[in-house]
Amino acid sequence: MSLLKHQYFPRSMFETHWPAEGQTTDPLMLDMFDPFDELDRSLAKNFMWINRPQFLSEIPEMPKVPHKFRVTLDCLGFDTKSIKTEFNKDKTKLVVKGGSGRVDLGDGDFIHKEFKRTYDVPLNTETDKLVSFVTSTGKLVIEMPLKMEQKKGVKAKQELIPKIVEDDKGNKTVQLNVLLPHAVDPSNVKVTCKDNDVIIRADQTKETNDEYSRVHIYKRCKLPENTDYDDLKCVMEKDQLTITAPLEPGHNLGKRTIPIEFHESTKKIKNN
Predict the structure, then answer these.
(1) Which uninterrupted H or E stretch holds 31?
(2) Which pLDDT does position 154 carry in this prediction?
(3) Residues 57, 44: contact at Cβ < 8 Å?
(4) Domain check: are 138 and 160 in the same one?
């Protein structure tokens, strides 16, 4: 039984502190770690896997942020029990009503408090999951989740991985596919290059009397060193941006030795 759990103290953390010269084994190694432990993932970097375990191949996905349709309305002074929400027949419009009706005060005086607001609802709204509440400041908040379509063209975790495609003539091209939200206007998407990185950026703000939305996108990916940036092309098709560029043949991508030039003062020190 090991004294240290491999999840918290992997064996590789202590590999830099080897025993003194002449000692072939560490007497504490078997006491601290389980000698039959096969789940130490940190050791994987030292292996040349033939059949890689499944748990090492999994790529953790980023947590998904829920998309919602939200309505806020000032209902200060209205009884919360009088506020009602309903949809039209095709559920494309949300109607919010509230008010106590007419209250007679006598001598012909009366108070009539009532409101009605109508909002357009997106087609991908899950209207059966509507929630609403009133804040302490009298704000009515109505929320409904939005159905996000599963993109078939590119998987999210493979989206920013460039692919090299070769045609029948042997010409190689690097290709990058990037998914963009449906609500983004293509004219707001900007593509720039810096060093070997391609940067996709989009900023969009939409504001009306009943709606305010803001979208910010920033994606960055490194392309191969032999990419011909002068012939880089971007094509937008529906919600997918495809970036392609040819690869320059004969570009040396391997390691090379760079000679060191010695200054005169360095040569004198060496001769002395």
Answers:
(1) helix 29-32
(2) 46
(3) no
(4) no
